[in-house]
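Hey,

The postdoc asked me to send both predictions to you directly instead of through the lab channel. I've kept everything plain text so nothing gets mangled by the mail client. Protein one:
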Amino acid sequence: MMNSMDAATTSVVEVSGLRVVRGGRVVLPGLSTTVPAGQITGLLGPSGCGKTTLMRCIVGVQKTQGGSVRVLGEESGSPALRRRVGYMTQAPSVYDDLTVRENLRFFASVLGAPGARSDTVIDTVGLGSSVDSLAGRLSGGERSRVSLAVAMLSEPAVMVLDEPTVGLDPVLRRQLWGTFAELARAGATIIVSSHVMDEAARCDRLMLMRDGELIADDEPASLLAHTGAHDIEAAFLALVDQEARP
C-alpha cells in the first residue's frame, strides 16, 4: 500500500489490526491505519468494499473480531466520546412524525447541545424553508441533510459521514463540501465516504479501499503523480491493476 503521509502528523483515529466478520464473510481482514487531525479524509471505493464497516468501527457501533480502534485517545464507542464524535449514517436517522425543527431540538436535548444550535445547523445544511415540514414528507436528499445537521449539533471534534451527498443535486453537493472545508479549517476532523470518485479532489487525504483493504493512503496530488493518472478513478484502476500483477 502506498503511503506518503508524514508519520509525525497528529492522529485522532488509530486503527490497528482491525478484523470484522459479518454473515460469515470477512469484511475487514486486519486493517491498520491512522486519520490525521484537522483534515478531510476521503474513504473511497466500490460498494461492498468495507467503507461503512470501517466507519461503524470508528464510531464504536460495530462488533469486531480482533484489533483495536482508538479515537481522540479513547477506545471507540466509549462514553467520553459521545459528544466529541458526530456520525451520519447512510440511511437517514430521523423521526418521520416530527418536523425538521422538532427533530433537531430533540437530538440537541439528548446531546446536551444549546437550543440555538439547532437553528444554526438547519441554516448550514440549507433546510430553512423546510424547518416546519414533517421529516417523513421530505425528499431523500432533504432527509439526509437533516441527518447531517444532527451529526453537527454538538460541534464534534470528529465527524464520520457515510455517503453524505447521495441523492443531492450538484449545487447542494458543492455547498456541503464547502461546509466540510470550513469545519476542517476550524479544527474538526472529517471522515467522509463516497463511491463517487470525482469528489476525491475535495479531500486533503484519500484512503482507497478494495475488498476490505487499503490499496492507497495519500494526498490526491501525490496519488495522481504516483500512478500517472489524470483523475482519481483512473488512479484507483491503475492501483488495482498493479495489485493484480504477479
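Protein two:
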Amino acid sequence: MKPLARSFFKRDAVLCARELIGCTLGHAGTSGVIVETEAYAAEGDPACHTWKRHGARDFVSRNDPGTAYVYLNYGMHWLFNLLVKGGERDGFVLIRALEPLGGVDLMKERRRRGEVEELCNGPAKLTQALGITGDHHEVDPLSVRGWVLAKPAKTVATITSTRIGISQATDYPWRFLMKGNRCVSFPV
C-alpha cells in the first residue's frame, strides 16, 4: 500500500471526500477500505462544526491538512473526520463507512457483532471497530505510527448523494459512496 501524502489533503474538501473512496484506513491492528464519506466546508456550511463552534475554527487554523478531528456525537458516539485545507474550500471529511479488511476478529470483539457488513457501516460503528476515541483528536494519521491512510489499489466507481444524519444543509450533494458496496451506512 502506498501511503497518502499530505498534499492529498491540501485541496478542496469535496474533491478530497470523493477521492478518499477506495482508500485504506487503518488503526490499532484493524483496517478497512473507505466506502462512504461526507464533506463539510469550514465556511458557509451550516452543518459544519465551524459554523457555530469557535474551537472548530481554531482547530482548522492550527492544524495541518490530514489531521484527525474526532468529536463526541450526541454524547455517546465518537466520529472521525480528516482536516482538508489549502485548496478552494477548507473543511472536513467525515469517514462514514468502511469495508473491513484486517483485524476483523478484533472488530467483531469491539463491536460485539458477527456480520462483517455491520462492523463499520456507520461513522460511530467504524470508530468503535477501529478503536478510535477522543484521545485521537488532533492526531496526525499521516505521521503517527500505528495508523494507515493509503491509496486505493484500483480505481473504484462512486455514487454521489446528499448528506444524511444532519438537520441543516441537507441538500448539499457532498456524500460519496462506493458503487454497489454492501458496507455503506445507507444505500442510495
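Summary for protein two, as requested: The domain at 6-178 is CATH 3.10.300.10 (3-methyladenine DNA Glycosylase; Chain A).

Thanks,
C.
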